Amino acid sequence: MSAHCQLTGRSPGFGKSISHSHRRTPRRFDPNIQRKRYWLASEGRHIRLTLSAKGIRTVDTIGIEAAVARIRARGGKV
């Protein structure tokens, strides 16, 4: 599963880990990605979305129908 949110588009950030001696090594900051299953009443089926924690809160706020419309407007597959 890639660390990419279908709704918000959040993806990993990249940077450096800095040790006590200040040696810099590459690292990756992954978003908090969860797989959630929602009931899509308009289509009469369940859908499974890969969302970040913020994406889950967004779905709770705007509703699943509006969230799916946003995902499809971005060209995402649901």
From TrEMBL:
InterPro entries: Ribosomal_bL28, Ribosomal_bL28/bL31-like_sf, Ribosomal_bL28_bact-type, Ribosomal_bL28_sf. Keywords: Ribonucleoprotein, Ribosomal protein. Pfam families: Ribosomal_L28 (PF00830). The keyword Protease does not apply. It comes from the Bacteria. One of its GO terms (molecular function) is structural constituent of ribosome. Signal peptide: none annotated. GO terms for cellular component: ribonucleoprotein complex; ribosome. GO terms for biological process: translation. Residues 1-30 are annotated as: Disordered. The keyword ATP-binding does not apply. SUPFAM superfamilies: L28p-like (SSF143800). NCBIfam families: L28. Belongs to the bacterial ribosomal protein bL28 family. PANTHER family: 39S RIBOSOMAL PROTEIN L28, MITOCHONDRIAL (PTHR13528), LARGE RIBOSOMAL SUBUNIT PROTEIN BL28M (PTHR13528:SF2). This is Large ribosomal subunit protein bL28. It comes from Streptomyces tubercidicus. The lineage of its organism: Bacteria, Bacillati, Actinomycetota, Actinomycetes, Kitasatosporales.
